[in-house]
C-alpha cells in the first residue's frame, strides 16, 4: 500500500486560489479515477474536479468553505502501489536512430 | 465545430457522443466549456450525448454587433441542431440560456426543458452589465423575460441564495413546472452543484 497526495491542480485562466464548495467524497470512500471529487469556486466560476486516481481516500486536506492555492495538498489516496493510475507501460527514453541519408548517393 | 447562422455568423458547438443528446445552453458572459464542461456536467449526464453551444458573442463563436434577441439566439442554436440533424432534444439551460431554451421549446425543438438560475423576470442592462459580457448581447436580451405557460415539461432549479433568480419558486408555480432549490448556492456557484445535476438527470429520465 502506498499513499499518494494530489495538490489542487492549475484551474487555468491565471487563477491561483479557490474556495471549497463541497467535497463529493468522504475519507474512507473508494473512488474511481475520473469520478467527481470536489467542487471548488474561483473568482470567475465554479469548477468540479474529477478524481485523478482510483483508490481509497485517506485524507481530505481542506474543509468546506476553506480557501487553498494551486499546489496546496488537496487529497491523499491509499493505492495498491505507487504505479497505480498509470495504465500500460511508460515508454523508455531512447536515442533517435537516423533513418534518412543526408548526402545524396554517388552515381 | 461550427454551424453557420442565417446572417453568416459562425456558431461554435461541441459534441460528446452518446444516446439521445442533451442540448446545454449557457448563460450571459459564459460559454459552453465554462458553464457545463468545467463544472462536471458531462460526467453527470454519463451515457447520454451532449451538445454544447457557444452563443454568438461568447466563447469561440463569432461576435457580430447585432442579432442578440432571444429569438435570434434561438435561430443560432436551431442552426446547430439542424447541422447535427437533431429535430428535438432535451435541453438544460442556465440563466440567459433559459430564454433560448424556452423559445426553442415554443418552436417544437425541445422535448423537456430545464431552466437553471432563471425566474422568468425580464433582465435590465443594469442587472447584467457588471457580469462583463458582450454589450451587444446585454442590449439584445434586455427587457426579455419568460412569458406564458410551458409548452413542454419544465424543471426550474435555482440556488437558494441566487439574487438574480430569487423568485424561481413562484415562477415555477406560475408556469406549471417542478421546482428544486439548491441549498446555500448563489447564481454563480449553483451550476456545478450535484443537487442541480441530480435533479436534471432525474427529470430527463422520468425518475
Short summary:
Chain A is mainly beta and 107 residues long. Chain A has strands spanning 2-7, 17-23, 30-31, 36-41, 46-50, 55-60, 67-69, 73-79. Chain A contains no helices and eight strands.
- Categorize the overall geometry of chain B: globular
Q: Secondary-structure element order of chain B, as H and E? A: EEEHHEHEHEHHEHEH
Radius of gyration from the alpha-carbon trace of chain B, in angstroms: 15 Å
Overall geometry of chain A: flat
Protein structure class of chain B: alpha/beta
The two chains with the largest interface, and their residue counts, are: A-B, 14 and 15 residues
Task: Please tally the helical runs of chain A, counting DSSP H or I stretches of 4 or more residues.
Answer: 0
Could you explain the architecture of this structure?
The complex is a heterodimer of chains A (107) and B (207). In chain A, 0% of the residues lie in helices and 39% in strands. Chain A contains no helices and eight strands. In chain A, strand 4 and strand 5 (46-50) form a beta hairpin. By secondary structure, chain B is of the alpha/beta class. In chain B, 31% of the residues lie in helices and 23% in strands. Chain B has an eight-stranded mixed β-sheet, with helices on both faces. In chain B, a hairpin with a 5-residue loop joins strand 1 (2-4) and strand 2 (10-16). Chain B is globular. The A-B interface holds A 21-22, 24, 34-36, 39, 41, 44-48, 50 and B 30, 34, 38-40, 43-44, 185, 188-194.
